[in-house]
Amino acid sequence: MNKLRALSWGGGAAVILFAVWAMVHYGTPSRFFAAIATGIVAAGLPYGIARFNQAIISLRYRLGDPESGISDEKGSIFVSQSSIDDPLETLETVLDRVTSDEAYDEVQREAFEEGPGLSIRHGGFHNSFVRITGAGRVVVTGASERTADICETVADACSLSFERTRENPFRGIQPIKGAPRVFLGVFVFTLLIAGTAAVGAGAYPSDAYNPAERLVLVGIDAQGDLDPNVSQTDVKLSKASFLVSVVDEGSMEVRWAKNDSGRVTEQGRNALRASSDARWLLASARADDSMTPEQAARADRIERRLIEAERSVSEALSERATDGSIDEENTTELSRLGERFESVEKDDDQNATASVDPSDPLSPGSGRSIAS
Questions:
Q1: What tens digit of pLDDT does each residue of 115-126 get?
Q2: Measured between alpha carbons, how far is residue 63 from residues 73, 142, 145, 285 in Å?
Q3: What is the mean pLDDT of residues 334-362?
């Protein structure tokens, strides 16, 4: 199996299985149809292109395209229109018939690359051949026009009908080679990345998270399903811990001078939403009756990190709202976002979670995918 085929089949199958698992885990099948479709395309694209290329070549042979350098005169290749059940029995039948016919000088059994066959000598030095394709078609070939007579003999002996063709019946699907193969490999790899990202987007559709962050969250969920030593409480704490790093990164994004007004506001909203999701996960984990002392201590550590990250974002929002680099409309929103963070710092986990207002576009829980 070549590398391109391994990449397309293996990668496509992996994306499909990943999407099927996500459909079961998250319970929203329609969100993952795009990922499954992408996996199917990635798995079948190289084979489909090779088949299409073979069909084009076959059509040019049949039509005798003058630009292809293929003559419109049919060659001495005859292929049975139906397949046979037993190649060896068929060859023995032909052997007996040709041996008893004085028109032919000699017939011998031959071993060809595709399997056993017959070599028939006639006219003193001309040779014709009877071979069997992998699909069970009988093929009679030769450079002499007397090959047609041998074809009639084989047809009569085996009750077959033959079609004369220019196309090599033993030509398999030709693999894609050279630069097109490289470009196709890159394209298939891109499809696999897109399919994997589509799973993350279906699992966590909130715009607050980028594709990489979504896949990390999905990976944590998958670990909870696959590793019996990882409890659902561990999953919630791991996701909360990761979201704290997302919130902390949000403070750097807000401070980044190259971000325009709209981008700064968007980063502030995303950080607030991640903060709310992290608090929701911590509250949910603490509500689990099976929570161990070690997990409770871990939750406390995550909460302390979250408070520090929230304070950092709040300070960054205040700085950008007053440094004169933000337009008036977005300055008002940045101030509101800063106030939100300040109110979260003053509340405990339960009150912070309960204060979410889904109708408020600045609410950290509006459109939330983790808590939903």
A1: 889 998 887 677
A2: 10, 22, 22, 71
A3: 54
Starting from the edge strand earliest in sequence, which strands make up the sheet with 77-83, in order? 106-112, 115-122, 126-132, 137-142, 77-83, 162-165
- Please state the separation of Cα 84 from the chain's center in Å: 39
DSSP β-bridge partners for residue 78: 140, 164
The pLDDT value given to residue 305: 94
Q: Which CA distances in Å does 366 have to 159, 192, 240, 290, 361?
A: 76, 31, 18, 29, 7
| Residue ranges of domains in the chain | 3-68+174-189, 77-165, 208-354
Contact 35, 199 (CB under 8 A): yes
Predicted pLDDT of residue 150: 87
Q: What is the pTM of this model?
A: 0.66
How many Cβ atoms from other residues are within 10 Å of residue 16's Cβ? 20
Q: Provide, rounded to the nearest whole percent, the portion of the chain with pLDDT above 90.
A: 35
The residues near 371 (Cβ < 8 Å, ≥ 6 apart) are 276, 277, 280, 281, 365
Span 77-165 CATH architecture = 2-Layer Sandwich (3.30)
Q: Give the up-direction half-sphere exposure of residue 4: CA atoms within 13 A in the CB hemisphere.
A: 21
Alpha-carbon distance of 98 to 360, in angstroms, equals 90
Decide: 357 and 363 in contact? Cβ < 8 Å: yes
Higher pLDDT, 172 or 350: 172
